[in-house]
């Protein structure tokens, strides 16, 4: 779909594991008076995944041409003969890529990647909040900002040994750093961003503010200023719209190209690539060894635009952060790397599988922080997803290209 709507009335089905978002549905109805909207709640986010397809009667899909849902898709394509557009509140689409709707149709699928306001090339949409708008929920921080804050939080918790002081506080003990502990600030350290999308760009912005050097890795080359620009949803004051923050760019999906990037004296590696067949187990034991060898300073930095400043402790094992999908990192290799010192630590908001079984060895690996895929949660999460849907419905009316359309060939 890329042209205007059909002659039939648009009917939207919203299926979510949470109570009805009445304010968002009201905004939709106000903007699109002829839009028929039906809502179903399935399960609860607090309880885990949506409770299943059976919670939505099959005949409900029959007359709907628009669908917003995380996972509740029609069992059969015959159940949704009118479906034209599927909008996912998630940033990725890997969780539906085996469904016939994805594999056997050309139905347009859009994601909520970025979940922030449209950039300046979309003049019909609000960009900067005015002074009276700043308290409005519609201008709350986007999901990528929350994820970047999670990255900074978990990084500093580890580098400043916060856990031991929190434990001491609960025990009413005045405990200082041990003699064998050294705190390294972030100034001059190098962040390698594996996947320089909207989240990677916001983390890079925060890292730069902390004095870090940033290098970026993308699937395809970004050799020109135009190719480095963020073409997705951004809002002024977040991210890296022009792609100006990295001091060096690397690209490719071949192992040799990935290894070249990993060998660039990286202190912190952020995993933010989408999960595709090409990126499944993208990082295994060999890649983690290359990352560790590179952090020793024995490799050239390959950086024609400058290098990190000289106070980096290159003997310190690198720190891995994964906010993408657990399957991108081979988990057994990750556990081994944490135990043998190949990695100095890890912050993981995603695991393989999820939920992580109670007896999984990752829980007890040294220097690891694990959270249950919540880094992007926040008050504005769903609101921003509906904002993208509204924007795309407006574009659809005008016959314009939609935002965040999934490229089935690339897998994201």
TrEMBL record:
Q: What are the GO MF terms of this UniProt record?
A: NAD binding; oxidoreductase activity
Q: Which Pfam families match?
A: 2-Hacid_dh_C
Which residue intervals make up region (Disordered)? 112-139
The source's superkingdom equals: Eukaryota
Q: Which organism is it from?
A: Aplosporella prunicola CBS 121167
- The answer, when asked if Transferase is one of the entry's keywords, is no
Question: Which segments constitute the D-isomer specific 2-hydroxyacid dehydrogenase NAD-binding domain?
Answer: 161-225, 252-375
Q: What is this protein called?
A: D-isomer specific 2-hydroxyacid dehydrogenase NAD-binding domain-containing protein
* Keywords from the named record: NAD, Oxidoreductase
């Amino acid at each position: 779909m890329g042209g205007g709507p059909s002659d039939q009335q648009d009917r939207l089905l919203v299926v979510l594991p949470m109570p009805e978002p009445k304010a968002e549905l009201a905004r939709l109805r106000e903007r699109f008076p002829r839009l028929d909207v039906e809502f179903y709640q399935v399960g609860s986010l607090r309880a885990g995944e949506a409770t299943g397809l059976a919670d939505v009667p099959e005949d409900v899909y029959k007359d709907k041409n628009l669908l917003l849902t995380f996972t509740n898709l029609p069992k059969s394509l015959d159940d949704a003969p009118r479906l034209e557009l599927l909008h996912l509140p998630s940033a990725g689409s890997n969780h539906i890529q085996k469904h016939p709707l994805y594999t056997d149709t050309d139905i347009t699928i859009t994601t909520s990647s970025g979940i922030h306001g449209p950039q300046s090339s979309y003049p019909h949409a609000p960009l900067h909040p005015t002074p009276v708008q700043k308290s409005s929920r519609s201008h709350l921080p986007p999901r990528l900002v929350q994820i970047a804050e999670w990255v900074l939080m978990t990084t500093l918790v580890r580098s400043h040994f916060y856990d031991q002081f929190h434990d001491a506080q609960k025990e009413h003990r005045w405990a200082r750093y041990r003699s064998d502990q050294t705190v390294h600030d972030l100034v001059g350290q190098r962040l390698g961003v594996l996947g320089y999308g909207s989240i990677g760009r916001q983390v890079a912005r925060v890292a730069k503010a902390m004095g870090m050097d940033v290098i970026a890795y993308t699937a395809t080359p970004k050799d020109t200023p135009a190719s480095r620009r963020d073409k997705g949803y951004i809002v002024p004051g977040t991210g890296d719209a022009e792609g100006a923050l990295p001091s060096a760019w690397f690209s490719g999906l071949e192992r040799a190209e990935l290894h070249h990037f990993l060998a660039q004296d990286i202190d912190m590696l952020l995993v933010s690539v989408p999960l595709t067949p090409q990126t499944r187990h993208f990082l295994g034991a060999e890649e983690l060894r290359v990352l560790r060898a590179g952090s020793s300073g024995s490799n050239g930095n390959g950086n024609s635009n400058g290098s990190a400043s000289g106070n980096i402790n290159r003997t310190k094992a690198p720190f891995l952060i994964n906010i993408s999908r657990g399957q991108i990192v081979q988990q057994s290799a990750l556990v081994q790397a944490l135990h043998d010192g190949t990695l100095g630590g890890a912050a993981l908001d995603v695991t393989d599988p999820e939920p992580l079984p109670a007896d999984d060895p990752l829980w007890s690996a040294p220097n690891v922080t694990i959270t249950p895929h919540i880094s992007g949660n926040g008050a504005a999460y769903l609101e921003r997803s509906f904002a993208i849907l509204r924007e795309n419905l407006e574009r659809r009316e005008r016959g314009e290209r939609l935002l965040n359309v999934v490229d089935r060939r690339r897998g994201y």
